[in-house]
Amino acid sequence: MQVVTSVTVEAFVRKDDHMVDSIGEGKRIGILTSGGDAQGMNAAVRAVVRTAITLGAEVYAIFEGYQGMIDGGDGIRRFGWDDVGNVLHRGGTVIGTFRCQRFRERDGRRIAARNLVHSGIDRLVVIGGDGSLSGLDAFRAEWPELLAELVAAGEIEQSVADAHPALMIAGLVGSIDNDLVGTDMTIGADSALHRIVDAIDDLASTAASHQRSFVVEVMGRHCGYLALMAAVAGGCDFVLTPEAPPAEGWQERMCGELARGRAAGRRDSIVVVAEGATDREGRPITSEQVRQIIEDRLGEDARVTILGHVQRGGTPSAFDRWCSTWLGFEAAKALLEADGGSEGHVFGIRGNRVAAVPLMEAVRNTREVPVLIEQGDYAAAMAKRGDSFVTMAKLFGELTEPSRISVAEGAKRIGLIHAGGLAPGMNTAARAAVRLGISRGYTMLGIRDGFPGLREGRVAELSWGDVEAWTADGGAKLGLRRTIPTIEELYPISRQLEDHHVDALLMIGGWNGYQAVHLLHAERDRYPAFRMPMVCLPASIDNNLPGSELAVGADTALNVIVEAIDRIKLSASATKRSYIVETMGRYCGYLTLMGGLAGGSERVYLHEEGITLERLNDDVKWVRSSFAAGRSLFLAVRNERANEYYTTDVIARLLQAEAAGLYDVRQGVLGHQQQGGSPSPFDRLMATRLAGHALEKIADQFAVGSDGSYLVGLAGAKINDVPIETMMTLMDRTYRRPRQQWWLQLREVVRAVAEEP
């Protein structure tokens, strides 16, 4: 597998700090969407079009998928910058999609080749599923023969064939099923998961009102990603996926789990069924069948909700916007750099990086999964889905079928505490920690109101039922404080830890919480009570914590920002307006950059880059001239601490002072709404996964009689743990952000798609 890093600055010729003509001069790219639609396809189309134009190439949109190539004529249209100017927020695909049977035939592909070369196109980006991509590779392989046939038939000149000797291709996977083996996420999967989890949250409230069971059917003929992840994120009771057909007697096991939940006081029960679920004999398991089993065996009222195509619809999530934009950027750049001998690749996300996977290798591996399922090799089928899929399946099993829901006297006692700023997903992490901890034989203690609460002894045991409805709740049920203990407070804190027999500490929170744990670790020689395993789990909307590339809560905040930007753009564009949006983040620009990228802003102002008067002068002149040329909206996103003097208000006033009646200016400070609301599916899943890993780390320390302290977090595609002693070396302490911030490489992506050269 080749890892593709973001394009370097040197790849572009710069003029007035904007990227202009470069590697694409004289080249033409075609782009099409094929197969089932998926949210985020439009973001990818926009990125390919604008990146190619920025690099000096011409771009042609091929309408209605492969059918447009065969139809030719108006089905192949040159696209300009503004043709993709208002598509980021739209679901589906603005250039259409079609399942084209004729392209499967050689004659259809020959006609398609003729129409492409007539338009001067020999580079092609296809956004679709594995069927669309395998057809693309076959087209590439046949290209020289197809052109030879066209020359022989007199349909093209030999000079035309000589000018286009090879077809260079790049694929992006648009599939809500997330079924491509070799990448973490496909375009549309995150948005579909949003639709499903929102529905489950809504169903849970009505189910609880009536003490009713719901069976939710989701898409996924051969892939159980949506079903499994929705079940985990929704706090559901049972899940049926294609990769793990249930063993004989699954009906009794399912009903036993639902009955156990009722006995524990739960008023709602939800079972998630993937549309492709079967038993181990290959017999389909339908949602209606599951409903009937529940009614017959438990005597409960049960209802079925089939979400169907609503999972494909609606506005794409923030992730599907910025991820698709990045993928489109990298695909366009790679395609313009390709030569006739280049192998076709699929571009996807692996561990917060873009990876280029050989196209047919990805297709072959993807198509192996249904075969493995049919052969009964379920472990291999699960493994093909990746470590995260396997881990989440194990965690879900442990959360729904625990080894125990109460612990024996004398069990190890783990304290759970929040500290720092509020982040959505804290409750999800706490719930997972409590239930996984109890299942593994630990007594779980809730410490209320952070370290001040610990100092005052506000510590109590948490039971299985105490965290019942915490999965979807924003806020922090245990309460939190930003307070870092003083030297004088260490003694009473140590006494409380001794009095409550705390054997380990799990801190879920932000930078102040990390500092507090670091302090306790450093003072363990003076205070023996601190000689115990301590683990920090990252939860901060700022995404500014050491040892993790992402923090719980940042994705939720990002979605809040993008939703606000969507509404702002709709209002502003109708009245010829410049709008400056201010985001949180302190000195870390993650929310600003990613919000600007996903929201389609023309400028982002980061503390990491700084703001100068010269830059503002250039920006103001450009805004004024672009409105004079017909622009109706300008959007900038500014980090709250991008510059001490050039505040959001100052920038807005500068723009207004130079408006000359062409536009007016508004500003919006999003404020604490970025910290509120129900956590996104991604934050719920990450919180659950990190909680499981944190407990494993504590268990490892218990097993060897050690008292190490660690930071857990995401490092690429893996969950990592870092000794807390290294914490300060990983941070820029002046600005409270990591020294290495992976997302800064996306600055070039923002520039490539924001301003027409």
Short synopsis of the structure:
With 757 residues, the chain is of the alpha/beta class.
Describe the structure.
It contains 23 helices and 27 strands. With 757 residues, it is of the alpha/beta class. The chain folds into four domains: 2-186 and 316-370, 3-Layer(aba) Sandwich (Rossmann fold); 189-311, Phosphofructokinase domain (Rossmann fold); 402-552 and 684-729, 3-Layer(aba) Sandwich (Rossmann fold); 557-677, Rossmann fold (3-Layer(aba) Sandwich), CATH 3.40.50. An eight-stranded mixed beta sheet has the order 1-14-13-8-7-4-5-6, sandwiched between helices. A seven-stranded mixed beta sheet has the order 17-16-15-18-19-24-25, with helices on both faces. Strand 10 (238-240), helix 8 and strand 11 form a beta-alpha-beta unit. Helix 1 packs across helix 23, helix 4 packs across helix 11 (359-375) and helix 7 crosses helix 13 (387-400). The longest helix is centred in the C-terminal third of the chain and has 24 residues, at 681-704.
What labels describe this entry?
Rossmann fold, alpha/beta, disordered N terminus, 27 strands, 23 helices, 757 residues, 7-stranded mixed beta sheet, 8-stranded mixed beta sheet, single chain
Largest β sheet strand count, sense and barrel closure: 8 strands, mixed
Strand order, biggest sheet? 1-14-13-8-7-4-5-6
The DSSP helix count reads: 23
Shape: globular
Q: How many domain modules?
A: 4
Give the C-level CATH assignment of the largest domain.
Answer: Alpha Beta
Would you count the extended β strands for me? 27
- Give the mean pLDDT: 93
What ranges have pLDDT less than 50 throughout 5 or more consecutive residues? 1-21
Output the CATH topology of the largest domain: Rossmann fold
- In angstroms, what separates the terminal alpha carbons? 33 Å
Structural class: alpha/beta
Indicate the proportion of strand residues.
15-25%
Radius of gyration: 27 Å
CATH architecture descriptor name of the largest domain: 3-Layer(aba) Sandwich
Which bin fits the share of residues in helices?
40-55%
